[in-house]
Amino acid sequence: MRYLRIAITFAYILVDIFFISAAFFPAYIHYYGTFPTDYRLHMLVYAFWMASTVLLFLTSQLYYTVRELTIWRETRRVIRALLATTLFAISLLFLLKIQTFSRSVFIINFVAALVSLVSWRVIKRFFVRYLIAKGFNNVNVLIIGAGRAGRRLAEVLARKRELGHKVIGFLDDHIAKDTEMKGTRVLGPVAEFENIARRHFIDQVFITIPSERNLVAGVSCLAKLNGISIQIVPDDYGLEVNNIRLHDAGGVPLLEYHSPSLNYSMIVTKRLMDIAIASAALVILSPVFLALAILIRLDSKGPIFYGSKRWGQKGRLFKCYKFRSMVSDADSLRSELRAAAQIHGPGFKMKDDPRITRAGKLLRKYSLDELPQLWNVLRGDMSLVGPRPLPEDEEVGQFKLKYLRRLSIKPGLTCLWQIRGRSDIPFERWMKLDEYYIRHWSPAMDVGILLKTVPAVFKGKGAY
């Protein structure tokens, strides 16, 4: 098996060298027309670049078909490694003052090599997944613990056949032998591990009850003696986490549970989208702004715009702007109407609010009163998409701790709540939608929410 892995790794390297060369030489000859007189120096730079690329690919585990690695994560590794070596080679040309070698060749080569190196890996991974799904090189798996974590693991392994894990059964001290758990049988107690492992030719064992330290130690010792790979499923303690990081502190292994926040590049991307779209919208919608301002002025006395303090990112207060849709003394009447609110919690919403003007009903139905918040987006107080800003209200101080995370990012002009029914959604569900958005944010999600906001607003559902 060891020699087979070495042979496969060597074959992968040869395929990469072929595709890198196939990308480099056509670009080189196309640019120069022929080999220049000092081509030996050029070939030396190219050889160094190719060798560094292969070496970085090797350290990035790109010459192994790791079954658990997704196609997207493998593609990201290829992009990072190839970009790093290409920039390094271009920097080397600059430092050594090799003026005769065009950097354009490297740029063209980078694009061509990236396409070919990613493409053949995607094809290879689909082929390997097909073989594994047909039973090639599958491993027999035994799961210690038939509790919630064990049953969930069995379901995942059964569903993801490309991982090549054949679940033979569970071992559990608290569930009777031969009990079937969603298609997987309990084979007996943990004490029978060695006997069952040999009888069923077990290759790998998963322990899903890590808190029982003596049991883990005993099974680990027996697994090692029998040449069985062992993996321990960490307890999630009921937490909602996206990632678990493994690192150490002075040699002490640690598992870090965390739900990652937006990194710097994601923040910059989101801000650039906000500026571009908000700027364009303010210009395009300026006639609409003028028409609504005239409508509000003709309908009732008071200012055209209404500004109120709202909770922003990290608890910072900012002035949020809207077109006025209520009578001018609406805030003073709020306490009298709170008992009739349809949304309970931080936020005040009620159907048939007597404070709303005739023009205000039209504005609120189609969320036109929110349009001035494009200015808040441009200023950086808000984002186009994000949790809706809550008012500076005494109830915010009583906010549940688990919901304070919605203040970790900028509030938005629209959100999942806006496209799922708005005020018809209960407060708890609203908060969960915000939590989901924060955990799973991506530029594609923002674009999707923005596109769905327009038809949702025109339907006028849940608007009051």
TrEMBL record:
Domain of life: Bacteria
Membrane-spanning ranges: 7-31, 43-66, 78-98, 104-123, 275-296
Cellular component, GO, one term: plasma membrane
Domain Bacterial sugar transferase: 270-459
Localisation per UniProt entry: Cell membrane; Membrane
Main localization of the protein described in the UniProt heading: membrane
GO MF terms, alphabetically ordered: phosphotransferase activity, for other substituted phosphate groups
Alphabetical list of Gene3D superfamilies matching this protein: NAD(P)-binding Rossmann-like Domain
Topology term for the membrane: Multi-pass membrane protein
InterPro entries in alphabetical order: Bact_transf, EPS_sugar_tfrase, NAD(P)-bd_dom_sf
Keywords from the UniProt entry: Cell membrane, Membrane, Transferase, Transmembrane, Transmembrane helix
Family: Belongs to the bacterial sugar transferase family.
Name of the protein described by the UniProt record: Polyprenyl glycosylphosphotransferase
Organism: Candidatus Abzuiibacterium crystallinum
